[in-house]
Amino acid sequence: xxxxxxxxxxxxxxxxxxxxxxxxxxxxxxxxxxxxxxxxxxxxxxxxxxxxxxxxxxxxxxxxxxxxxxxxxxxxxxxxxxxxx
Length: 85
Description:
It is a single chain. It is built from 2 helices and 6 strands, in the order βββαβββα. About 10% of the residues lie in helices and about 35% in strands. The chain has a 3-stranded antiparallel beta sheet. A 3-stranded antiparallel beta sheet has the order 4-5-6. The protein has helices spanning about 45-50, 70-75; strands at about 10-15, 20-25, 30-35, 50-55, 55-60, 65-70. A hairpin with a 2-residue loop joins strand 1 (about 10-15) and strand 2 (about 20-25). It is mostly beta strands and about 80 residues long.
């Protein structure tokens, strides 16, 4: 029995390449191509540090990026994306 408040992450970054970032969440693989500007030129450690505060909502605290499963799967529905620094 685990201690109260301890959870096992159901989300993890499984691959990072020049083509994009692969995220495994609940036995589903999601791909964020290089067009997702927030991950460019970030340290690997920051990209690997992902949390899921609620189901389908992913947060990278080291780079202050919030993305939902819908944004990742259908970026064309969200044309007003933030510009990377």
